[in-house]
Amino acid sequence: MLETTHSMRHLPDGAAGSVDVAAQRSQPARGDVTDRLHPAIIKIMVGCFVVMMVVFWLTLKASGEALFSIVISSFYLLMYCGAPWIMGRTGSKHGVDRGQARDLNEFLGSHMITATGELTGWEVLIQVCSIAASLMIATIGICIVIYLT
Questions:
Q1: I need a labelling partner for 140 at 20 to 30 A (CA). Which of 56, 61, 97, 121 fits?
Q2: Is 27 helix (H, G, I), strand (E, B) or coil?
Q3: Is the pTM value of this prediction over 0.90?
Q4: What is the rounded CA–CA span in Å between residue 44 and residue 129?
Q5: pLDDT by residue, tens only, the chain of 149 residues
Q6: What are the boundaries of each domain within the chain?
Q7: How many CA atoms, within 13 angstroms, populate the side-chain half-sphere of residue 72?
């Protein structure tokens, strides 16, 4: 898509119509583009998963079989979140520069380079946290129904 809008800039005035305007609006200033995910976004995602597991623990604590499954799932969550955290913590000791931490509001107002293109900070937040938040909301709803019956 960028190649199409780039090649349309070479057309005579008025030939590209509003496409030039849309292409110019989608181009961020080079100063506020990052390739690093803000740590607060990961914390939000992990927080959703932790809330989901706590709700499961509170709802299903009376059943031994269900509690066994919850313990195993909690262990998997610990590994899922712990392995990247440990790798990130040890990366700086092996020459990986973590960069300057930015404010979350500044990140949300900037753009991020991904393998599939450029996204705004809000789009990154939604893509990373939407599944975790949806699962958390569904879990709360299911556990409320279980508790009330």
A1: 121
A2: coil
A3: no
A4: 7
A5: 444 444 444 444 554 444 443 444 445 444 577 777 888 888 999 999 999 999 999 998 888 888 899 999 999 999 988 888 888 777 767 665 656 667 888 888 888 888 888 999 899 999 999 999 999 999 999 999 998 98
A6: 39-93+110-149
A7: 6
**In the numeric block, which tokens belong to residue 121?**
């900070």
User: What gap in Å lies between CA 131 and CA 48, rounded to an integer?
Assistant: 9
13, amino acid identity = D
One-letter identity of residue 3: E
CA–CA dist 112, 90 (Å, integer): 24
CA atoms within 13 A on the CB side of 10: 4
| Residue type, position 93, single letter | K
**The tokens of 74 are what?**
């909690």
Structure tokens at 9: 């800039």
Burial of 80 (0-12, 13-18, 19+ CB in 10 A): exposed
Residue 10 tokens read as: 């070479």
